[in-house]
Amino acid sequence: MSSRYSAILHEIHTEILPLQHHGTVAQYIPELAKIDPNKFGMHLRTIEGNDFSVGNNEELFSIQSISKVFALAYTVSLVGETIFERVGVEPSGSSFNSLVQLEYEKGIPRNPLINAGAMVLCDVLIDKLREPKDDMLAFVRKLSGNSGITFNERVAASEKEFGFRNVAMAYFLKSFGNIHHNVDEVLDLYFHICSIEMSCKDLAASFLLFANHGKIVSTGESILNKSQTKRLNAIMQLCGFYDEAGEFSFTVGLPGKSGVGGGIVALHPHRYTVATWGPRLNAKGNSVMGMKALELLTTKLGSSIF
Ligand code: GLN
User: Which end of the chain has less neighbouring CB within 10 Å, N or C?
Assistant: First the structure.
């Protein structure tokens, strides 16, 4: 099997080359627009701990919305399922930063993996943690086994300066009573966790938790119970790609999460995790090369979760 993963990753690397110039790098966060658009990396880690990779798999990039999964896992580990009284578990069918749904659903975000949902998670984390930013970083470092992971302060500042829609969203949530803390404090945590930099290798390592019943494979530490892990995977499956979640399920067939930094991470429970990075995005904000690479992976392996 091992040599098969390696051969498949190399085939994929060749087959996605024609897509190299498709899509555009996220422009609305000026600091993100500076990234070299032609990068591509892919890293697969098996549940047994074997690594396979191609391209720029160890290069750091801004994980952006992928951080919402870490925020959700941390929140659930602290407050359990009570979080779902303040945020739903239904696919949104709208863009990640939509304000429309929030109005008619009275400030309860559809799910935790859209911006509004993640802001509610940040509000809870501020409530429960002594040093929310440091604690969040420590959590991600623990899951990935990489103590060097950190925020990119320039990206966080750039988003703070230009993220007018997110500011509007946080105040909107507050008007419905679904943000309890100071809005600036919530946004500061939100922008910082979006700015975390990781590589495909780090992401594959940290998501192994969700392929392993909520236990960190390398240390055996239990972060989530079996039922919580199942629920998080279900949320990723239904909501991990915004209004393209159906397409990702349809073509790839794994739970996963994307970010506008061009990263995607997905997992096959009990088998492997896989992360891709290609900064050019499609119109829905998902990496063009990453989506195709993962479709090719599950097709060539002949297995998805379905
Ligand atoms: N920080 C970005 C934002 O709030 C995250 C969006 C994303 O990755 N889809 O707009």
Answer: C
Q: Which amino acid is at 262?
A: G
10 Å CB burial of residue 275 (0-12, 13-18, 19+) is: buried
Whether 159 is in a domain gets the answer yes
Q: Is the CB of 152 under 6 A from ligand 1?
A: no
Which atom belonging to ligand 1 lies closest to the Cα atom of 97?
Answer: 10
Domain count, the chain: 1
Task: Decide if 306 is inside a domain.
Answer: no
User: Residue 68 class from Cβ within 10 Å (0-12 exposed, 13-18 middle, 19+ buried)?
Assistant: buried
Taking the centre of ligand 1 as the mean of its atom positions, its distance from the CA of residue 85, in whole angstroms, is 23
pLDDT of residue 7: 97
CATH number where 120 lies? 3.40.710.10
Spell out the SS3 assignment of 172-184.
Answer: HHHHCCCCCCCHH
Spatial strand order in the sheet of 150-151 = 61-62, 196-198, 150-151
- What's the distance, CA 175 to chain centroid? 27
Q: Decide: 286 in ligand 1 pocket, CB within 6 A.
A: no
> In sequence order, what are the residues at sequence separation of 6 or more whose Cβ sits closer than 8 angstroms to the Cβ of residue 40?
13, 16, 20, 55, 56, 276, 277, 278, 289, 293
Residue 279 CB–ligand 1 contact under 6 Å: no
CB 289 within 8 A of CB 200: no
The answer to whether position 111 is within a domain reads yes
Q: Which residue stretches of the chain have pLDDT < 70?
A: 1-2
pLDDT number for residue 95: 87
Q: Which atom of ligand 1 is nearest to the CA of 159?
A: 1
The whole-model pTM stands at 0.97
CB 95 within 8 A of CB 28: no
- Would the CB of 285 count as within 6 Å of ligand 1? yes
Which residue among 160, 241, 260 is best mutated to probe the pocket of ligand 1, counting the most ligand atoms within 8 A of its Cβ? 260
Host domain of residue 192: 2-300
